[in-house]
## 1
Amino acid sequence: MIDVCCAIIVREDGCVLVAQRAADQLLPLKIEFPGGKIEAGERAEDCLVREIKEELNLDICIHKRMEAHRHRYPDFSIHLIPFVCTITGGEIQMNVHQNCNWLKPEELPEQDWAEADVPLMMNYLKSLK
């Protein structure tokens, strides 16, 4: 089981930042909430701040932890821990992803998501009601 944290980054207008995985990565071209693997002894929150800085050159503020989800892919299993965040600094620079977009909440279900991210996206949408 791989422990991973991810950021549901929300802008003032309610749009959410989604990232597209690169073609040469696992789950090529799938949409995901950006984040990464938690290192040994690292808190999930610290991992997320580090990963978002490394992947997107953004500084974030974590507002709340959402319900985690476990997912089994054919070759590995993932424990995905989401956090709702806002940007506090930096300019988007894609160091890992092929693309990223700001989407309105109602546009989120239409994307080609990595399977593990789907329940997180649905839980986030439920939290807005």
Note: The two ends are 32 Å apart (CA to CA).
## 2
Amino acid sequence: MVRNDTNDENAVTRALDALTFILNDPLRAGRFLDVTGLTPDNLRECLTDPSTLAAALTFLEAHEPDLIACADSTGHSPEALVAARRVLEQPR
């Protein structure tokens, strides 16, 4: 059984890694911005907002090949990325 211990700090790190993965591909980045309604300017402004970070992980979850590719690229398991999203979505 894989453990997915995720605290707030780990969740933020995983989400930022995932967001970097998304933004490093122009087509994927464009889809992310289109789906979320974010612009490059307001994305910069809310990079540390848990809801923005959770949106990046939700975006990857919606298309399993992207989630798997992100996991391979970042070294975080798909399960750890999903667990990070859950942590980020918890009320503060």
Note: Residues 8-23 form the longest helix (16 residues).
## 3
Amino acid sequence: SVSSGSKTLKDAVNETLREWSKRSEDTFYVLGSALGPYPYPDMVRELQSVISKELKKQTKKYFSGLPDVMVACVGGGSNSMGFFTHYLMDKNVRLIGVEGGGIGEERGANAKRIHNIHASEGIAQGYKSLFLQDKDGQLSQTHSISAGLDYAGIGPQLAHLAEIGRVEFTSALDKEAIEACQFFAKHEGIIPALESSHALAATIKICKNLKNKNIIVNVSGRGDKDIFITTKAINRAKWKGFLQAELTRIDKG
């Protein structure tokens, strides 16, 4: 577990690199996002691309062709790169990445690297890409209700795909992600992870301007892990009361 800094992905990567540099003879560095020093972005993308490899077979059968739009959340970029990889050459398929819009536009209030061009080119944690940083190259504080999107950098492959216009980027606010989580839990019977809830929130907005299109959203995680965050955000008073009642029940048992 990470106790330094903001205790998010940036700090986890920092701590891991420190440990690895001290104990490289008996330690492996394992990274779950498409970032970091080469060849980690390529390794993660290739391993995660099983998503789009299987999906392409399924969509050909289900849609009798390709989807029109594909939407995925973007933190470091592992799920989105895995989701997009086998569709990159299919120019008629719109690929949309959704970043953490946080609570506003101010510095430190969001984790938007590309949407509205908040980031600049830099080198950090062993790779060159776009980062939210100050004029000295120090990584800025970020905010997202989702720990997986609360990161100052973005994988170099996604930065390139944004630069050449192959992947579009938008963002969703914390409150929009929570509302999307509630909406899909009620109407679809799923509890999406907060990362995926950002993609679902953006999709709700995208759908308002599209008709008769096949849209796929990568629901890349289950919301069980976020229950202490989402429930508090939805109804803090009831959640506190429930926990207190449970503690009382356990003490009596």
Note: The mean pLDDT is 93.
